[in-house]
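DUF2232 domain-containing protein
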Amino acid sequence: MSQSPQNHPREMVETAFLASTTAMLFLINFYFPVGPLLRMLFPLPTALAYLRWHGRAAWMSVIVTALLLAILMGPTRSIQYLIPHGIVGVTLGYLWKRNFPWAGSLSIATIIGAIGTGFQFAFVSLLLGENVWNYSIVQITSFLNWLMQLFGSLEQPDFAAIQAFAIAGIVFSNFAYQLLVHLVAWIVLDRLGNPIPHPPKWIEGLLE
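Structure:
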């Protein structure tokens, strides 16, 4: 009697392996942070589960990863993985499987990542009992004051402008991060037999 697609033993094994790989990457990066080198890999095992199987496998990979991290590192780190990395992984798998162009997948992933960063600020503020966003605004204000003085201006930056600068910085950093994720996925997943859509010609030209 043949196995149904949703109960295929290979799917279960691969999903468990990809989930444990994600948890291990997250764990190693927490104790031995190496900048974006490992972080850019966080969404890829989940996206690969979607590409090789379907949405159910991707969500199971996310859930198992979150459970593993909750056991190994506590629920706080588990939630920080889930939002945004887990959701980004499922979203990218969904988009790549449907051959979305990079403009679409990059934009959607950047939006999810930026919202996830906002969630992280709120979540950490709740845990610490302090408004981390306000602390960040103070640091940005000091930086802008120094920058304006460097160019000979003694004016104080407007509060709305500071907020806009902070939000723009979050969006830009998430865009740069998602671009790295796309580039790594384009190189690695193609070699694993699950290619994603090709990047725009100008990006291919830069890499050649």
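The two ends are 50 Å apart (CA to CA).
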